[in-house]
Amino acid sequence: MRRFAALYRRLDRSTATGDKRAALVDYFRDAPPQDAAWALWLLAGGKIGGARAKIAGTNELRDWVASASGNPAWLVEKSYHHVGDLAETLTLLLDDPPPSLQDDTPLHVWIEQRLLGVAGQDEATRRALVTSAWSTLAFDERLAFNKLLTGALRVGVSQRLVQQALAELSGVDIARIAQRMLGTWAPSPAFLRDLLTPGELPGDRAQPYPFFLASPLEAEPDTLGPIEDWLLEWKWDGIRVQLIRRGSDIALWSRGEERLDGRFPEIEHALASLPGDAVLDGELLGWREGDAPLPFTALQTRIQRRKPGPKILADTPARVLVYDLLERDGEDLRERPLAERRAMLEALLASHADPRMVLSPRVATPDWAEAARLRDDARERGVEGLMLKRLASPYQVGRKRGDWWKWKIAPLTIDAVLLYAQSGHGRRSALYTDYTFGLWDGDALVPVAKAYSGLDDKEILQLDRWIRANTLERFGPVRSVTPLHVFELGFEAVNRSTRHKSGIAVRFPRILRWRHDKPAAEADRLDTLRTLAR
C-alpha cells in the first residue's frame, strides 16, 4: 500500500502531463507484478467490490468514522460538506498511528485477502476490517485506502495516459496496448505480462480495435481545403460499434467497450453471412420500415435486454450503417488511406446485400456552401449533422484532431428555471455545479433536464453563493432553491419518455448562457418542448 500511496500522492500533486507519465513509468517499472496489476485496474477506472459484494456504503463509512474519531455525526456531515470528498474527510478526521504500529502490507494483499475477503459479509465484520485499517495506516496510505473504499480515485490520469506510460516502459505499440485493454479483463500478473508482450498473442484476435473518434468542427469548413479531399457522411444518432467476424467467432463491441452479444441477433446473423472475415466500424440504429432511423430512445429498449423477445425485435428492428473496414481476412487495414478502405468496404457490402448491414451513404455535394445547406436540414432527416473525413486519413486511435470532424447542427434551445442543485466532483466537489432545470406546466414548474457544463468559473462561484443563500429544502446532497434564475439550455433532440415525470427526455443537455435579462415567469412552457419531441 505504501508504494501505491506514494504514486497517488505524486499524481495528485502534479499538474503537468509529462510529470504524471513519468510517475506512472517509475511505478510500473519498480512495483511487484501483483501490485502493478491492481494499480492498473484502479487507474483504468476499475473499482473494488460491487453491488453484490459490498465492502462499505457511504452512510456506513460516516457512522464508522464518527465512532472511531469520537466526533458526533453532525460534525462528520459538516466536515464532509466542507471538504467535498468523502475519502479525504475520513482521512482528515482520524489520527496517524505511531510509526511502530504502521502497516506496510502490499496493495494486492490489502485488496485480495482483506477487502475482498470481507466483501458482502455482515456489517460487524466489514466494520472491524475497515476501522482496524484506519488505526494502522499513516495519512497517505489511509487516504489511498479510503479512495479504494469510496471508488473515487480521481487523480487527473486518463486511461490513455496510463497506456502511454506502459508503451514507453515496454516498447509495445500503444495501439496494441489499448486494444488489449478493451472489454472485460481481470487484474492479474498474467494479464499484465500479456499486455506488455511484444508481438501478437492469440488473444489479440478476439479483441476489437480502439475506436477513432472525430473532433467537433469549430472553424468554417472551407478552411479544411477542397471538398474533393473529404468524405461527407450523415452523423447518425445511434451506438458506435465494431462488428467482428474472425472464423467462427462473431462479436459486436460498443464504443463503451461492452460486448453486445445476444442483444442484436439479427445483426449477428447478418455478420455471420459475410463472405470472409472482417472487422467493420459503424453505427447501430433502430430502423423503421421505409428508410428512416428511429429515435435513440427506441434503441435503448434493445440495449437493456440481453435476449430480446419477438415483440421487441418486431417493434425496434436494428440496422448497422457501416462506416469503415478495419480488417479483411486477417489483414489490418488501418494504415491504408480511407479512400482505399472505403472502396474495399463498398465491394464487400455489395457482394453481401443484407439490409441489416449497409454502407453509410456518401453525402454528395459540389462545395462547402451546399454542404452547409444540407447540414441545416439534418434534423428533418433524423440525423445530427455531417461527418467530415479526410480521404487520405488512416484509422487512428482515440480523438486525434485534423482528419475526422463532426459538424453538428445548431442545438435546440429552451429557457428553463433552476430548481435544484447538487455539489460536483473532483476539483468542484465543494461547489454546487450539478443543476436541475424546469419548465412551466400550467402554474407548476416541472423538471425536464439536468446539466453541469456551460458556465465559467466566475459564474459558478456566483451561482454557488446564491444557491447557499437561497436554499428552500435539502434532500440529502440536493438542495431545492428559490425558482428565480433562468438559463438557456441547448440539446440535440427531444423524445417522448414514460420514465420521466415530464413525459419528455432531452439528449445531451448543457447550459448555453445565464439569462439575467429574463424573469422566471417568462421561461418556456413544457408544451413548447412537447412540440419538438419525436
Automatic annotation (TrEMBL):
Keywords linked to the UniProt accession: ATP-binding, Cell cycle, Cell division, DNA damage, DNA recombination, DNA repair, DNA replication, Ligase, Magnesium, Metal-binding, Nucleotide-binding
Catalysed transformations (reactions): ATP + (deoxyribonucleotide)n-3'-hydroxyl + 5'-phospho-(deoxyribonucleotide)m = (deoxyribonucleotide)n+m + AMP + diphosphate
The protein's Enzyme Commission number: 6.5.1.1
InterPro entries, A to Z: ATP-dep_DNA_ligase, ATP_dep_DNA_lig_pp_1105_fam, DNA_ligase_ATP-dep_C, DNA_ligase_ATP-dep_cent, DNA_ligase_ATP-dep_CS, DNA_ligase_ATP-dep_N, DNA_ligase_N_sf, NA-bd_OB-fold
GO molecular function, one term: ligase activity
SUPFAM superfamilies cross-referenced by the UniProt entry: ATP-dependent DNA ligase DNA-binding domain, DNA ligase/mRNA capping enzyme, catalytic domain, Nucleic acid-binding proteins
Record flagged with keyword Ligase: yes
Keyword Nucleotide-binding: yes
ATP-dependent DNA ligase family profile domain mapped to chain residues: 320-441
Stretches assigned to coiled coil: none
Pfam families for this protein: DNA_ligase_A_C, DNA_ligase_A_M, DNA_ligase_A_N
PANTHER family reported in the protein's UniProt record: DNA LIGASE 1/3 FAMILY MEMBER (PTHR45674), DNA LIGASE-RELATED (PTHR45674:SF13)
The protein's name: DNA ligase (ATP)
